[in-house]
Amino acid sequence: MSAPSFLLSEEHEEFRGALRRFAEKEIAPHAADADEREAYPQASMDALRDSGFVRALYPLEHGGDVTCEPSPTGGARFVMDLPLK
Length: 85
Hints:
extended
């Protein structure tokens, strides 16, 4: 039995590439040092926060940067635009 195959959308591939480039430039250089010191990787977390890839999910009306929409299955879903660097 073969594994199912699928293709990612062009937008998903762009996002994936942007995140990979970011991780290689901003996170990977700090990983070994943080592991050796058994320390919290503050430099990596600061870069991640500043990048815009990680955001608090607060609706626009509460000062956030996401739109909260009703989910078809009940509850809500968050919709946000992420930067492609």
